[in-house]
Amino acid sequence: MKLSDYFRLGIIVGALPNQIMDGQIIDAVPVMQNLQFLADQVNSNAQPLAGAVGTVPVFVPTVGGTPNAITLTPVNPISSYAAGQTFTFIALAANTGATTINTSGLGARNLRYADGTAMSGGELQAGAPYIIEDNGAAYVLMNSAQATGLVPWTPTLSFGGASVGITYGLQTGISCKIGRIVFQAFAILLTNKGVSVGAMAVNGLPYIINAGWQGNNAGPLVASQLTFPANSYNVFGYNLGTTTLSGVNVVSAGAFTNLNDTNFANNTLIAGQAFYAV
Predict the structure, then answer these.
(1) Is 186 exposed, middle or buried (0-12, 13-18, 19+ CB in 10 A)?
(2) Residue 13 clears pLDDT 90, i.e. is over it
(3) Residue 23's Cα: distance from chain center in Å?
(4) Which residues, including other chains, have CB under 8 Å from residue 254's CB and lie 6 or more apart?
(5) Where do the structural domains in the chain lie, given as residue ranges?
(6) In a 3-state reduction of DSSP, which class is residue 99?
């Protein structure tokens, strides 16, 4: 950002109506006319500064609420929401999902990405400054490229959407979110695959996979004690709009089947990586 993005040059235009020379003794009327001219020029040409359209973001020193339901109290309260109102504030805590902001007690306003997608968690980090702008319907987060750091999570396994009798010797996952891209790795060691049947899935991803994500398979599925056809390989597939990945066996391009309970043993070790947009 440049200073010129915020300030317009040449706000005061035209010559003063009265030319007053140095040392000249003059009545107050021409002086007041000049002052009124300047005031009129500023009022008609300068953009308001209190959270108005196209201005420098107004810093809000008083931030409250909860990580996902933030309250902002500007020094000069606003009387209504309006497109173009821009604020900057320092987050008190990391958000963990869909987030709203309530400014001047006017009611919760959703915080969105520019394309309208809701927050999924980690976009705001404690102690970091953020800029939001009202688009007339919601607040748009203008700077969300911060990384969340490493976030631990606990993966679980299911077959046909159930996990009856499944026990684990290991469940470990780690994730990092940079802007809208999530990178993660995980591992699961079974001690008993249980009695549930059907398609296999890894559950518990810390962020929802964007429903419009157009990536191909998430990444390689590495496993021990896993039965599958010769000359094939296994990958994780995305379940869009969810926090789950499917296990897929690929025989050739375009020929694949979902892994299911029959492919697994009681002591199978499963490991993989994935990246996707939220």
Answers:
(1) buried
(2) no
(3) 62
(4) none
(5) 3-45, 58-141, 151-277
(6) coil
Instruction: Count CA atoms within 13 Å of residue 176 on its CB side.
Output: 9
Of 90, 84, 56, the C-alpha closest to 72 is 90
* CA dist., res. 62 & res. 74, Å (int): 7
Residue 131 has pLDDT above 60, yes or no: yes
Answer yes or no: are the C-beta atoms of 186 and 172 closer than 8 Å.
yes
Report the distance separating Cα 50 and Cα 76, nearest Å.
7
Q: Which two structure tokens, joined as six digits, stand for 254?
A: 């375009």
Alpha-carbon gap, residue 251 to 232, rounded angstroms? 4
Measure the CA–CA gap between 79 and 89, rounded to whole angstroms. 19
At 204 the pLDDT is: 93
Average pLDDT over residues 48-67: 73
pLDDT, position 211 = 83
pLDDT score at 48? 46
Tell the residue number behind the tokens 């108005």, with chain if given.
52
Rg, the chain, Cα only:
29
- What pLDDT is stored for residue 7 in this prediction? 44
pTM for the full predicted model: 0.59
Q: Give residue 6's pLDDT.
A: 42
Specify the higher pLDDT residue, 28 or 178: 178
* Closest by Cα among 211, 108, 221 to 157: 221
The neighbour count for residue 5, using CB atoms within 10 Å, is: 9
CB-based burial of residue 156 (10 Å sphere; 0-12 exposed, 13-18 middle, 19+ buried)? middle
